[in-house]
Amino acid sequence: MKVLVINAGSSSLKYQLYDMNDESVLAKGLVERIGMDSSILTHKPTGKEEVTEVSEILEHTTAIRKVLDKLVDKEHGVLNSVDEIQAVGHRVVHGGEAFKSSALVTPEAKAEIRRLFDLAPLHNPPAISGITAAEKNMPNVPQVVVFDTAFHQTMDEKVFLYPIPKVLYKKHHVRRYGMHGTSHYYVSRVAAEYLNRPLEDLKMITCHIGNGGSLTAIKDGKSFDTSMGLTPLEGLMMGTRSGDLDPAVVTFVMNKEELTISEVNSMLNKHSGLLAISGSSSDMRDITDGLEAGEPNATLAFEMYEYRLRKYIGSYAAALNGVDVIVFTAGVGENSAVVREKVCENLTYLGVEIDPELNKIRSGEPRRISSPNSKVEVLVIPTNEELVIARDTLRIVEESK
Ligand code: ADP
């Protein structure tokens, strides 16, 4: 079965086409600047040259039509006909409490995703645009939605509730949901497989650190706790997000600086984190370059980032009453040897010991970076959220037959 995976943003649409017989990627690409004067479609068929096309793409329906055209293109295509696509899987950020796993797209499912617009105003509306656009272009193909939040629905009430008036949970569904669920799910499974040990026996802390970042404590293969909350703002210090702070900072700053809700939201989500402290970049590559050069602001940004990450690992080790495996994944986790080194250097009290040489290797494959003496297995596992979406799509479609 061939499955098209779609990740729709407000002005972008990423896609990957899978042949699920061997889980190979036939093509992938990205449409950027949807709704702007010149949109860019970048298409990469596996084993062939990447092609870029600039045109006017005003909305997602046209974007998907252009993608389908490329997939069957004589020169750059990988399919004889669009009919070869037998299912479409969509990434949806927020599934609230309604979606504890992936689901077939039905009018009810779409209505529920719309009800969740309030909780994910930036993410869920473009997902609906992507679903509607795919339905218009491929009316007879089953569609599946896969949620970032679903994996975390196993969290206990004592973990997901905030200690604020309970009426806010009842009325407005204010609670911890967590994000990056497909990634935490995927790397935890790959970790158990790599170690050749039963998932249920392992207490794991998975660190998904990219532009955004979250940690998950995993017990019995299930999400026990996770650092993102009602929104992706809670938890770690990130590229442009503050992560945890005293909630009173928000009202204090709003008052002093006469900021609106939208301004303070933008400050905390887009102008904080590494960017705010370094004063120059949200990208960990620039921060570590600055660290090496002894640049004081980049050094402080790095030290705060590492310190906050380490504190979370410590708190999750306490939450789980121990830790057997720590996994690093996503842009920073997979690529930044210095972040991993500095974090692990200060986790010796847990019995963590990494091998500096193994830590330097970059292979794109799951690998161990801890030394044989380490009491905790420390792994680097490249994440693959698209593959999880493709697998779930296949499963849900087969189950619905
Ligand atoms: P997103 O959260 O947007 O999905 P990614 O997981 O792709 O992002 O992570 C992107 C981030 O990864 C970049 O902004 C950069 O900070 C970091 N990164 C990528 N490569 C490296 C590297 N070699 N060293 C340090 N950081 C890196």
Automatic annotation (TrEMBL):
Designated name of the protein: Acetate kinase
Superkingdom of the organism of origin: Bacteria
Function in brief: Catalyzes the formation of acetyl phosphate from acetate and ATP. Can also catalyze the reverse reaction.
Site label Transition state stabilizer, positions: H180, R241
Residue sites binding ATP per the record: K14, H208, I209, G210, N211, G212, D283, M284, R285, G331, V332, G333, E334, N335
Binding residues for Mg(2+): N7, E385
Residues annotated for substrate binding in this entry: R91
Family, as annotated: Belongs to the acetokinase family.
Ranges in coiled-coil conformation: none
UniProt xrefs under SUPFAM superfamilies: Actin-like ATPase domain (SSF53067)
Top enzyme class: transferase
Record keywords: ATP-binding, Cytoplasm, Kinase, Magnesium, Metal-binding, Nucleotide-binding, Transferase
Subunit and interaction comment: Homodimer.
Localization: Cytoplasm
